[in-house]
Amino acid sequence: MDKLVSYKSIHFIGIGGVSMKALAKYCRLRGVRVSGSDIRGGSAIERLAEEGIEIVDCDDIECIGNCDLVVYTAAISSDNLQLVAAKELRIPVMERKAFLGLVSRGFNKVISVAGTHGKTTCTAMISSVFDRAEMPYTGHIGGDLQGKECNLICRGDDYFVTEACEYNRSFLTLSSDIALILNVGFDHPDCYKDMDDMVEAYNSFVRNCKAGATVIIYGEALPRIDARGYNVVTFGYGRECDYYPERITYKEGRYSFFICGRGERLGKIDLPVYGKHNILNALAAFACSIACGIDAEVVCAALSEFCGVKGRFEKKGVSAGGAQIIYDYAHHPDEISATVDTARVFGRGGKIIAVFEPHTFSRTKSLINEFSASFAMADEIIILPTFKAREDYIEGGAAYDLYVAVSKKGYNVKYACDYEKAARLLETAEKGDVILLMGAGTVSALATYL
To answer: Mean pLDDT, the chain, as a whole number?
Structure first.
């Protein structure tokens, strides 16, 4: 921790972000004076204040002069008042991804979980296993654990378990002892030219691993990844993988299976969380835990009690008409397909009504064909305006463009200009139906209208 404790006071710009609030709380626990600002308010910011972190207004530049370091997110513009003030005062500034790399270097071993989908759930799964095994670790998770309202777990300094985000090549600041690659699908067209460009970033992530590192890779992604010189472990549905499932069964969207390795059954996992895609997340978490020397029986027991992460097929109540309301962070075509499929298994014969709020114009434009096909299993579809996040409008990437593309597929789709209009369209949903709210923006708030 020498590098971190050299800073007596750190200010976080954009402290309300999931990763940023965890890093801020970690610094606070290490005895660093922490302050922060964010244009968003809400309960998350209030909890940070209750935990001893000073929250200031976004235009407050007086606080910057008392800091040794300013950390900011990639979404912060270069003309941000506090960022400009720090540079004028010659106070060191560091983007979040670089600061995460700095924090990670204070631990004996780093476990980095990468992939287009599943990072948050798999990181949380590994943390749950480490908890049960009483391993000394710190978990930095990209979402709050169900029932715990936290995404930072501090149990020691031996292992640092963290998400390795591919956006803006953030994961290249990490040097891992164990690197997991859950999948490699094209995303973030605002910072990657094409799939080859993204694959090269993943290969750079692997090349940054420490000598003798273990690289755990989804079997179908293995041909794309150059992990020569490392200890490679694979997982997937095929028996050619080092870890694979057998005798998969499900009940109302929850899956059970035996986990096998090299022809031998190593234990049974009864997943409490919904979705077939979580079988692969569990396999990856199992492979990682075994690589850390944890007994297979302990791993299976922990994964069979995994509480899940908020925003991943999260129940949000029942509509006035009696339909189940589910929120999921899904904002990529593969994630939408998986979520709709889960709802189909979870549901009991009623309609699946998919409500989608696109996230960023560039993603919508680049993947519009994939998006339009991802709703195939839904009975009704409602498209909301794009949550623009860090972008300005891009021609061909608006939500209405997606609505037109989905319409051409012949699907039952409607466009809603806001949440109130969407709520009116959902008034016909009844008991037995499932309303899926999907997106990485604020679409979960629609539940309060229903």
So the answer is: 94
